[in-house]
């Protein structure tokens, strides 16, 4: 359920009409609904509430990469969420949004020495070590500061998550984590190092998952590893199960519900006796945002017409990058149905949102939205073709605010210079 609906013939986000936002902020613009974000955060938390309470309550660490906007993070922080971060920049955003340092988990294969040091100084809750080499480096940095880093070892369970290759992370040849078969030996070596408190294990096998079975198989492998580590005398208090739950992009998409996911997790982790950590991203933010765009012109095609909109692959990269589907809907619906190709203005064929799509007809000057754009939308924007960076708006009931200014192409050009020695 979301809060994007037609009222009096016009699409609204909560109580604010999209034409009013287009008028005030221009297009293209991402528009997020606070009520939808909160509802998704609550539904996900409710689905996992049975897994532990008090000291053992699961930590819900929103995957900041999905939507790093400060206002979005602030909304989620108020819902009790922490953050899964993958760079110093994301960590500073989580802190700036008010997330408690002990609710921050730091993942990623390429944390630099500077980032490790910064995260130690911020006293974050957990480093998810992605390699033995990273653990050795963090040990040295922490020991030199007289600090102890709380860590989990991320393992690669060699499970095919059954999703798009580019967002699959748990197969043996993916770059993430250490091979699960080597984990006991690596865990033993790292836990002997100073400056590290290696207290758990972590995994994340991929994103936009439509099947629970690969996750359950991965969790079963993790359960065996926990038992093996304990048999070797290690104290295991934390298990991070990553994110990955899929969301519907099309009307007939039926991903597992958070409740079904929660039941599977309860079954798979029975008797683990650990603090569970989750890193949901898309399931919280995906359907809480749309990309609002205006039709520039409609161009005759050989078969179907081309609807050229003012949003492009630099604003929403997913269709060009993964062939992803985003529903396209008129802000003032009710026109005849038509078949069309929906494209942006960028000069490459990849700047295509849809080919041969059945839509309600739109014409030059009309507003439309790409739905399910709240996750991996604005955050993946670029300034390709010198188009500047897209703006973002948050709606809360009848209130709305620009939560990220449009960064015009000229501002980006202003950060460039021609050296005076060029002759
Ligand atoms: N934890 C880790 C370690 C991750 O790498 C990711 C996503 C998540 C959590 C959150 O996964 P989610 O719950 O959102 O599925 N740009 C791609 C998605 C890349 C996901 C990368 N990792 C897309 O637009 O589909």
From TrEMBL:
Residues the record lists as binding pyridoxal 5'-phosphate: 244, 279-282, 376
Keyword Iron-sulfur set for record: no
Gene Ontology MF: a single term: diaminopimelate decarboxylase activity
Enzyme's top EC category: lyase
Binding residues for substrate: 282, 318, 322, 348, 376
SUPFAM superfamilies, per database record: Alanine racemase C-terminal domain-like, PLP-binding barrel
One protein family per Pfam: Orn_DAP_Arg_deC
Cleavable signal peptide: none
Residues covered by the Orn/DAP/Arg decarboxylase 2 C-terminal domain: 30-374
UniProt keyword list: Amino-acid biosynthesis, Decarboxylase, Lyase, Lysine biosynthesis, Pyridoxal phosphate
Enzyme Commission number, as recorded: 4.1.1.20
Modified residue annotations for N6-(pyridoxal phosphate)lysine: 65
Cofactor requirement: pyridoxal 5'-phosphate
Residue span, Orn/DAP/Arg decarboxylase 2 N-terminal domain: 38-285
UniProt keyword annotation of Acetylation present: no
Catalytic activity: meso-2,6-diaminopimelate + H(+) = L-lysine + CO2
Quaternary structure annotation from Swiss-Prot or TrEMBL: Homodimer.
Family: Belongs to the Orn/Lys/Arg decarboxylase class-II family. LysA subfamily.
The protein's role, per its UniProt record: Specifically catalyzes the decarboxylation of meso-diaminopimelate (meso-DAP) to L-lysine.
Name of the protein this chain belongs to: Diaminopimelate decarboxylase
Gene designation: lysA
């Amino acid at each position: 359920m979301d809060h994007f609906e037609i009222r009096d013939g016009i699409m609204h986000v909560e109580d604010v009409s999209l034409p009013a936002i287009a008028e005030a902020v221009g297009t293209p613009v991402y528009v997020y609904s606070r009520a939808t974000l909160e509802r998704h955060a609550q539904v996900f938390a409710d689905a996992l509430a049975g897994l532990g309470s008090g000291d053992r309550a699961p930590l819900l660490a929103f995957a900041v990469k999905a939507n790093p906007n400060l206002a979005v993070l602030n909304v989620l922080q108020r819902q009790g969420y922490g953050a899964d971060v993958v760079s110093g920049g994301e960590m500073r955003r989580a802190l700036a949004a008010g997330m408690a340092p002990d609710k921050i988990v730091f993942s990623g294969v390429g944390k630099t020495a500077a980032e490790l040091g910064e995260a130690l100084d911020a006293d974050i809750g957990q480093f998810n070590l992605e390699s033995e080499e990273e653990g050795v480096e963090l040990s040295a940095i922490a020991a030199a500061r007289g600090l102890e880093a709380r860590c989990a070892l991320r393992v690669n369970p060699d499970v095919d998550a059954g999703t798009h290759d580019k967002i699959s992370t748990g197969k043996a040849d993916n770059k993430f984590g250490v091979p699960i078969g080597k984990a006991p030996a690596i865990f033993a070596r790292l836990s002997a190092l100073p400056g590290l408190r290696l207290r758990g294990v972590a995994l994340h096998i991929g994103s936009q998952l439509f099947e629970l079975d690969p996750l359950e198989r991965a969790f079963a492998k993790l359960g065996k590893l926990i038992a093996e580590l304990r048999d070797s005398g290690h104290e295991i208090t934390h298990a991070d199960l990553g994110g990955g739950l899929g969301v519907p992009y099309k009307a007939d998409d039926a991903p597992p519900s958070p409740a079904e996911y929660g039941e599977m997790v309860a079954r798979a982790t029975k008797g683990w006796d650990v603090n569970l950590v989750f890193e949901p991203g898309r399931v919280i933010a995906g359907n809480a945002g749309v990309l609002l765009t205006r039709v520039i012109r409609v161009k005759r095609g050989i078969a179907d017409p081309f609807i050229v909109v003012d949003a492009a692959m630099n604003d929403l990269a997913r269709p060009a990058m993964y062939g992803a589907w985003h529903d396209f809907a008129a802000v003032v619906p009710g026109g005849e149905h038509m078949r069309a190709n929906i494209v942006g203005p960028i000069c490459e064929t990849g700047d295509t949102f849809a080919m041969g799509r059945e839509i309600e007809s739109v014409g030059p000057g009309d507003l439309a939205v790409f739905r399910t754009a709240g996750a991996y939308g604005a955050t993946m924007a670029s300034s390709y073709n010198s188009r500047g960076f897209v703006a973002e708006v948050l709606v809360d009931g009848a209130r709305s605010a620009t939560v990220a200014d449009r960064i015009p192409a000229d501002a980006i050009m202003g950060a460039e210079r021609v050296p005076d020695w060029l002759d």
